[in-house]
Input
Amino acid sequence: MTLLHPGSMGATVGAQATRNNATVRWVPAGRSAATRRRAAEAGLVECADLATALQDCDIVMSICPPAYAEDVARSVAGYTGVYLDANAISPARAQRLVGLLPTAVVVDGGIIGGPPQTPGTTRLYVSGHCELIPALFDGTALEVVGLPGGVGQASALKLAYASYQKASRVLAAIAHSLAREHDVADQLAHEAGLLHSRPLADLDVFCSAAARAWRWAPEMREVHDALRAAGLPGGMALGAADALERWTSVKDRDDLGVDDVLGLLADG
Output
């Protein structure tokens, strides 16, 4: 396997493959001393250039910042093996990779969790023609989960998860910043400690949120104004207001299910 542009995540993923006696190659040209150190610790094999790394290589795996995913794919144009893109990219971008690599078997991947070091912490979801990938990491700390759909499905799952997991941290930071601006940080921390909800896991809360959206949407616009007055970014509050307004037609209704309210969000 050849690992393209491995950072901390890539090196750790590569290390898992080496534990299954896979030879994992990489090209150190232009990379930092820290990257070289991580690669050496992971047991990756240095190659003088990309052509050498790709010679007789069955699988190429790309783990890089999402903005570079297409450039990385273009760098191996003409490759005829399995190309696994494991970046946090949109389903549409994942589909574009298929066009960029017409001679390769493109596999769509999405990593959820931190760098895999202990079992049960990190999953690699894959879709498309992904038959060779599970064996590469069988018995390691990286769990491979095959999805039944084509290229784009694994990316959709990754971004669906990231849209909550990452944005929620930013929202919490903004909330605490606003509280500090008005000297109520301790009180907000107290209220935070009383919360028990897990919105991503508890889908039933969506139905009650939809019924109350007619009140919550204006509240989010007030949040936006307060954030801007405090010099804080308010775009997420406006986005929440826009989403809530898609539910205002079901004011105070308690007869809708999760599929109904999620459908209203998708339909606009």
